[in-house]
Amino acid sequence: MLFGFSPKPVLRGRVGQCGVELYHVLYLRSLRADALVLLSNRLLWMGARVSKRVRDEAGDMVEDEARRHAPLPPGEAIHTSGGMLRVRYIVHANPLNEQLIATPELLAAALDSAIKRCEELGARRVIFPDFTDQLEGWSPEQCAYAILEAIQRNEGRLQTALIACWEKAHLEGYQHVLAPYR
User: Fold this and answer.
1) Which end of the chain has less Cβ packing within 10 Å, N or C?
2) 91-133 per-position pLDDT tens digit
3) Are 108 and 150 in contact (CB under 8 A)?
4) Cis amide leading into 9 (omega within 30)
């Protein structure tokens, strides 16, 4: 808990066997899980948007550790320690092609690789930070569907998926998509 505060989920639901919890957070370290899935670029730089937020909370050592695995091919995933976050691992997945564009197919491959890596690590409770700002041209609803579809494709690999949103507008998009899964 951060200063005695542990957020309550805004919404709880199920996708197959996997519990899904949606959170509105100020800091990722207010959540506890086995792993966090982070969309990354091929060089594993953590200098902008969601990656920067994660690096700022986890510590520079996570970026240093990740960069040793560069270049990361599109659709693939690697893992690092969780740094100062309350997770054991950060799973870095690359959804970007050579033009730095995330296609639906590459995003699906990257999320599948990340979930498989989580399973290999024994991580059953996994945080998915809202990655809307990281993917040019993607809406919060499209990102939410991408996460839910990845959970469905990888049935039984995760026990609980925690989706963390910082921005209220993005949270509302995720709520709209997740509402039928209550």
Assistant:
1) C
2) 999 999 999 999 999 999 999 999 999 999 999 999 999 999 9
3) yes
4) no
Q: Copy the structure tokens of residue 24.
A: 């509105």
For residue 112, what are the CA distances in angstroms to 32, 75, 94, 158? 22, 8, 11, 11
Please say whether the beta carbons of 42 and 67 come within 8 A.
Answer: no
- Domain locations in the chain as residue ranges: 11-181
- CATH topology for 11-181 is Leucine Aminopeptidase, subunit E; domain 1 (3.40.220)
Please report, rounded to a whole number, the percentage of residues in the chain having pLDDT higher than 70.
Answer: 97
Q: Which of 2, 36, 18, 1 is nearest to 164 (CA)?
A: 36
Q: Identify the pLDDT of residue 17.
A: 95
